């Protein structure tokens, strides 16, 4: 199957510009996203994901998300982090909260490369709702309406995919409008 990833690799091998190779990937946070770069390499360029990048660094997950994967990352924007209770982000970025922060972030990561059409297919196969186990031991419930994919976290909150199918060398990013939270303990 000829994917954006193989197109980008072929374009690079032929000496075509990286911007041409990324033409099929959506822009995120005002930045081009390159299918031949990792999740972290692309995320650092998005002006909408500065908090997520800081959190990934503080949680010690940079090496994981730069590894081979594959991963599907539901990437909350800075505005999504801003919806959390005042002081929450600052508290989670403290070294003492590293484990808790890592756990929350892993609830945004699936150990597979799942583009939106594949997610919709799994939802259809499961009768309209598909359970999505994450690396953080959270199980999200995926549904869709038209082209819009929604996730429900373990607290019953709805998270919307706002930009889907941002192809990466080690998986895919789907930009989301809320931070996914694990069940209350």
What features would you describe in this structure?
The protein is of the alpha+beta class. Helices cover 34% and strands 22% of the residues. It has a seven-stranded mixed beta sheet. The radius of gyration is 16 Å and the shape is globular. Residues 1-23 have low confidence and may be disordered. It is built from nine helices and seven strands.
Keywords:
alpha+beta; disordered N terminus; seven-stranded mixed sheet; 185 residues; 7 strands; 9 helices
Summarize the structure.
The chain contains 9 helices and 7 strands, in the order αααααβαααβαβββββ.
Helix content: 25-40%
Q: How many β strands by DSSP?
A: 7
Q: Write down the overall mean pLDDT.
A: 88
Given helix and strand content, the structural type is alpha+beta
Number of helices: 9
Q: How many strands, which pairing sense, and closed or not: the largest β-sheet?
A: 7 strands, mixed
Report the portion of residues in β strands: 15-25%
Q: Overall 3D geometry?
A: globular
Q: Poorly predicted ranges (pLDDT <50, ≥5 residues)? A: 1-23
The oligomerization state is single chain
- SSE topology string: HHHHHEHHHEHEEEEE
In the sheet with the most strands, the strands line up as 2-1-7-6-5-4-3
Task: Give me the Rg, rounded.
Answer: 16 Å
End-to-end distance, in Å? 44 Å
């Amino acid at each position: 199957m000829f994917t954006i990833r193989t197109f980008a690799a072929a374009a690079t091998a032929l000496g075509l510009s990286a911007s041409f190779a990324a033409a099929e990937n959506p822009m995120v946070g005002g930045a081009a996203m390159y299918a031949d770069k990792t999740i972290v390499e692309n995320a650092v360029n998005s002006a909408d994901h500065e908090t997520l990048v800081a959190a990934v660094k503080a949680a010690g997950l940079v090496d994981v998300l730069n590894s081979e994967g594959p991963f599907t990352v539901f990437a909350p924007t800075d505005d999504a982090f801003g919806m959390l209770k005042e002081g929450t982000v600052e508290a989670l970025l403290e070294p003492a909260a590293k484990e808790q922060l890592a756990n929350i972030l892993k609830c945004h990561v699936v150990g597979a490369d799942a583009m939106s059409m594949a997610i919709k297919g799994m939802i259809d196969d499961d009768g309209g709702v598909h359970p999505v186990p994450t690396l953080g031991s959270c199980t999200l419930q995926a549904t869709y309406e038209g082209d819009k994919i929604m996730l429900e976290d373990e607290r019953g909150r709805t998270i919307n995919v706002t930009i889907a199918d941002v192809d990466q060398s080690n998986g895919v990013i789907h930009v989301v409008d809320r931070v996914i939270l694990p069940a209350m303990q």
